[in-house]
Amino acid sequence: AQAQAPTTLSAHEALNGARAGTLLLIDIRPPAEWRDTGLAQGALALDAETPAFEVRLAGLRLDHPAKRIALIDRSGALAASVRTKLAGRGFRDIVAVRGGMLGPGGWLAEKLPVTAYP
Asked: pLDDT of 78-94, one tens digit each?
């Protein structure tokens, strides 16, 4: 049996993957939060609450079949639940960023770079 792939990444792992081009980092928070904190550097802004979220995500998956997708949110909880939901619908290779943008051990806590939105 294959070992279970990890379902989470640290913020540093996500940044390194995005920089290396092996990972698609997607910020799934609402736009008000993007404006508030900026986006994780290298992240695509894609609000999980929009009706087209899964369609857009499927499109990104088709455009980048070899890349793992990492979801980042405010604290890690939404990303984990969205990841579980998507895995149930057949999405593979999706991970959540532990701590999100604002949680302990998350992106801002680790002082990782952000990009202003928009």
From this structure: 999 999 999 999 988 89
Overall pTM surpassing 0.90 (yes/no) = yes
Q: What is the 3-state secondary structure (H, E, C) of 50-71?
A: CCCHHHHHHHHHHHCCCCEEEE
CB 69 within 8 A of CB 42: no
What count of other Cβ atoms lies within 10 Å of the Cβ of residue 106? 22
Q: Where are the beta strands (DSSP E) in the chain?
A: 8-9, 23-27, 39-40, 44-45, 68-72, 94-97, 114-115
Q: Which residues 6+ apart lie within 8 Å of 71 measured at CB?
A: 26, 28, 48, 79, 82, 83, 94, 95, 96, 97
Q: Are strands 68-72 and 39-40 parallel, antiparallel or unpaired?
A: unpaired
Look up residue 95 and give its two tokens: 């991970």
**What tokens does 51 get?**
């009706």
Q: What is the DSSP letter of 6?
A: P
**Contact of 86 with 57, CB cutoff 8 Å:** yes
